[in-house]
Recover the amino acids of this structure.
């Protein structure tokens, strides 16, 4: 009883309230008046998901047919009846080499997802075997002061997800460390505000691609002596610069619009500058700062794909680009898998921020 | 020399064309240990007056003197109880009071400070709620925290800006008694701003009406000759109380009516005659 109560509280707290309703359904605790709620919160989303998959399936099928007809027609005009018949038979047999290349159906995407997981298992096993094989040699090399031999095989899909998450968190951290302190200074001082305003207005709408190029120009020169691969550094710095603006603007706004009553309290109590900032101004602007951070994280995740693609930095962006260039039979399906993974991770990141916001904010009703 | 002195105060916001005059010709003297109430309508500039005295704003012209010295900025000697409590919502009751005490007595160590906090929270009987946040408290409880916060700094003068305005009658009565108790104990000087004449009479030695703004100014003072401690129920039958109360209310009603009639005179309707549109659209005749 106590454990289930906690589960309900936790799932509500992290913004996944429908778990509670779902659990009530299975434990038979669902009251009649809750039924409507259950319908709205659980059945309706499930139904809309099914509808979406259905429409997708139908759409993919008709695109497939258009592409197939076009291919057969082309074979007929170019090579004659025999080639067209052979192609028709080949498409009908499901042979992968002659399948029309178009939007994959839901089942193809699901298959690709599973094959990516299998691929990951194979690569992991490979890696483990490599590590085992080189363990003694590496220990010896390190003792001799040489670099250890590292696994240089292809990263799996799952590895690339984690690499992307690393990049996005490094970028987010950079944005946080720059934007929050700068936002506080700008919010506190009208002079700094007018000094920085043009800067913010001009750089805020700059596209991720241009940020990448700018960072590339600078970092390339700064790391000119280093043998290390700078693509990770470049991509996380670009992500940070692209995404920090929302936090900067929101922090400055939050800090400059603290309730006048609180400022009066600080004055009447004669708080020092630091006390005033840390005890009054910051706590009061936390909700807005967090709204900014939430936007920053989602922007960071969104621009990450484009930047990884440009920087050739391993991750989901590079995965998508390589699959597109690859043009293998299941490439399109893998791209769609990556799309869903990106979307779902973005959603989870948003929930994570919401949870942290709920945790630190004084006003529990404020979080959206 | 009076304890607190306001000399010919004039206060306006926004210079130039958009100038709004709030207070003018304000003269007030408060002696040490006195309890003075200023009674006025809402929007008559009461809060501006309070902020002038506690040092949050400066007068456009004229001087505020506290113990003979001009008031520059806020001071721990003048404690303020704000109209809307102004508690910091992210701190607990204890932390709100602690923050004030720490600033007022920077030399004391943490344990001594905590003792002071505990004492004052106890005084407003909120010890059970000491670890609660303001949004978990009722309006009356919040106001009591604000009272505790102001008093824990041991100010020489307490300035109260409609401190009980938003409370129900019962809570209000209790808090009035509490404030009077504290004031009576160490005879601090107190200034109460209120819109409730009865409250003023019950608590203060003198009542001064504030004539409503723009250009609000202080009216003639009314002395309250009632023995302390005063008893609310007995007071209602006291002829002296009735007389003073009627005088003040009559005065306030008069200035209210004056204001209304002034307002009436100000409306001058433009002399407009409807244009003869019909003629414009006649063609061919």
């Amino acid at each position: 009883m106590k454990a289930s109560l906690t589960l309900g509280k936790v799932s509500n707290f992290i913004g996944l309230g429908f778990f509670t309703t779902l659990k009530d359904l299975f434990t038979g605790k669902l009251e009649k008046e809750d039924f409507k709620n259950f319908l709205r919160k659980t059945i309706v989303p499930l139904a809309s998901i099914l509808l979406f998959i259905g429409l997708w399936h139908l759409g993919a099928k008709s695109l497939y047919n258009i592409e197939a007809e076009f291919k057969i027609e082309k074979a007929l005009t170019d090579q004659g009846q025999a080639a067209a018949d052979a192609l028709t038979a080949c498409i009908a047999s499901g042979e992968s080499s002659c399948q029309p290349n178009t939007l994959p159906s839901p089942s193809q995407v699901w298959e690709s997802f599973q094959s990516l997981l299998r691929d990951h298992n194979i690569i992991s096993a490979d890696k483990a075997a490599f590590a085992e094989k080189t363990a003694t040699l590496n220990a010896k090399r390190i003792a001799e002061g040489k670099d250890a031999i590292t696994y240089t095989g292809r990263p799996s899909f799952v590895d690339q997800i984690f690499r992307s998450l690393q990049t996005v968190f490094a970028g987010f951290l950079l944005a946080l460390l720059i934007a929050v302190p700068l936002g506080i200074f700008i919010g506190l001082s009208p002079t700094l505000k007018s000094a920085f305003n043009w800067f913010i207005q001009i750089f805020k709408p700059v596209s991720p691609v241009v940020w990448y190029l700018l960072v590339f120009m600078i970092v390339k020169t700064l790391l000119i002596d280093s043998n290390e691969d700078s693509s990770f550094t470049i991509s996380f710095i670009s992500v940070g610069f692209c995404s920090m603006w929302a936090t900067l603007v929101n922090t400055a706004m939050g800090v400059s619009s603290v309730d006048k009553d609180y400022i009066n309290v600080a004055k009447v109590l004669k708080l020092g500058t630091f006390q005033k900032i840390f005890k009054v101004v910051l706590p009061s602007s936390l909700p807005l700062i967090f709204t900014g951070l939430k936007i920053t994280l989602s922007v960071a995740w969104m621009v990450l794909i484009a930047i990884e693609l440009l920087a050739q930095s391993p991750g989901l962006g590079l995965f998508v680009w390589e699959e597109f260039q690859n043009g293998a039979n299941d490439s399109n399906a893998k791209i769609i898998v990556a799309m869903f993974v990106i979307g779902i991770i973005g959603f989870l990141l948003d929930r994570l921020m919401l949870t942290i916001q709920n945790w630190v904010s004084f006003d529990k009703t404020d979080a959206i | 020399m009076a304890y607190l002195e306001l000399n010919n105060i004039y206060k306006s916001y926004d210079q130039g064309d958009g100038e709004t005059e709030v207070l003018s010709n304000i003269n007030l003297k408060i002696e040490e240990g006195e309890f003075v109430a200023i009674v006025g309508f809402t929007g008559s500039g009461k809060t501006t007056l309070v902020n002038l005295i506690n040092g949050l704003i400066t007068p456009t012209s004229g001087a505020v003197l506290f113990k003979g010295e001009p008031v520059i900025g806020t001071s721990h000697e003048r404690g303020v109880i704000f109209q809307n409590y102004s508690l910091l919502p992210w701190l607990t009751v204890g932390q709100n009071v602690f923050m004030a005490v720490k600033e007022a007595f920077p030399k004391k160590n943490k344990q001594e400070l905590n003792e002071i906090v505990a004492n004052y929270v106890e005084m407003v009987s909120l010890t059970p709620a000491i670890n609660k946040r303001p949004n978990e408290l009722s309006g009356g409880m919040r106001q009591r925290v604000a009272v505790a916060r102001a008093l824990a700094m041991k100010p020489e003068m307490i300035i109260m800006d409609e401190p009980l305005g938003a409370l129900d009658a019962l809570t209000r009565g209790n808090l009035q008694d509490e404030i009077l108790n504290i004031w009576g104990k160490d005879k601090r000087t107190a200034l109460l701003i209120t819109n409730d004449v009865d409250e003023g009479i019950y608590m203060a030695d003198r009542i001064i009406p504030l004539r409503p703004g723009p250009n609000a100014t202080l009216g003639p003072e009314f002395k309250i000759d009632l023995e302390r401690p005063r008893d609310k129920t007995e007071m209602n039958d006291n002829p002296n109380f009735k007389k003073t109360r009627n005088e003040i209310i009559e005065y306030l009603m008069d200035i209210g009516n004056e204001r209304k009639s002034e307002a009436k005179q100000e409306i001058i309707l433009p002399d407009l005659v409807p244009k003869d549109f019909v003629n414009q659209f006649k063609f061919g005749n």
